[in-house]
Amino acid sequence: MPKHLLFLSLVAAWIAVAADNPVTFHKDVLPVLQARCQGCHRPGEIGPMSFLTYKDARPWAKAMRQAVLTRKMPPWFADPRHGKFVNDPSLSQKGIDTLAAWADAGAPEGNPKDAPKPVPFLNGWNIGVPDKVFELPREFQVPASGTVEYQHFVVPTGFTEDMWVERAEVRVDKRDVVHHVLVYIREPGSNYLREAKFGEPVAFTGSQVLPSEIVTGWAPGNPPTILPPGQAFLVKAGSDLVIQIHYTTNGKAAVDRTKFGLIFAKKPPTERVVTVAPHNRKFLIPAGAASHRVDSSVTVRQSSSLMAFTPHMHMRGKSFEYRAVYPTGESQVLLRIPKYDFNWQLVYALEKPLRLPQGTRIECTAYFDNSANNKFNPDPNKAIPWGDQTWEEMMVGFMYMTIPAGNNRSGLVREPEAIAAEE
Ligand code: HEC
Question: Looking at the predicted structure, is the pLDDT value of residue 29 above 80?
Fold first, then answer.
């Protein structure tokens, strides 16, 4: 056979194989979407479009290709060189190649018989049926425009004995006007928001010291709170819950009635989950500064374990890093976010809890970009201090830690850092 004919027949054979085995939606793409995308891209969740069916996903093939090649999706910002996280949704190279090849091939459907079974998503609650649901005591009217101060609703639990919470989920009512929700425990005897009337929200933007643990919260991209077996948050008898909601206006008035649900531990846990928030309020980011450093730290005073992180900054947040400095003097980077994105307040949950010997210092380093090159910067000509609103700044290294269930949390970190969270 002449050489060029041999070559042509090889090409033909290759085309035949490729045609036999093209990347199709049902066989190749849907499993990736189910595993990594549908958690957000389905009706009622935060993704702006659904990827449940071929019909839904087909128009987005090219955009998906772009989003996964640039690693814009799924959202995840941890430097892969430091730490391993259970909830890392990043696609494997194979997953990326599959979505790209599918888009390049014209997004073929393939045979529906090849499709995996649909994922059984619950409508509404993702934690299972809650043992107890709390709702905002009344509807909140969000105006069409202007700035709305943080709203705080105090809700009595009515608990007559100590309760251990294993799972918790916020169901936001009007997602397009809710920036974030946090649910705090107010223990009996706490003076926090004592003047508040049950049912009436208290609005303030000034910073106040918050009562104690955050049981759960909601911000785009965060799953509900589902603790591993044996761990729980303690809500003492007679506690109230404080729901903090940050509403943002978008040109259309709305009426919101967000709710949240709790599932209790069926048997006493061995570990108590607490939140610790090394933060720094004493900074002023100079006007125009492209890389302004702010540090915070806490020293751990009883041996404990570190479970997860949520770095928190606003629009000028540029990068964030957590380090452990052990009593031996050794230091280790625990989490590095090289390019912070304030749109995503993600939880980074360690694959294996990290034991922290007594005396370990956790250090946080944040950089802020207050220059005109930061496209999110609302005003590069202003020096920026700490403040609640998104055009002011914050520097908080939220951490979820565990202590033995019988221990008191007050000795965990040195005062005044013992405060669970401020704002
Ligand atoms: C944690 C929730 C979440 C996950 C997981 C997620 N997305 Fe998204 N996605 C969003 C949200 C919210 C937006 C709209 C805001 C934005 O573009 O950042 C979006 C936007 C997009 C867009 C439009 C991008 C653009 O530039 O306009 C595409 C395409 C997309 N996602 C594809 C995917 C794919 C493919 C996956 C899985 C590999 C995925 N997403 C996983 C939440 C998610």
Answer: yes
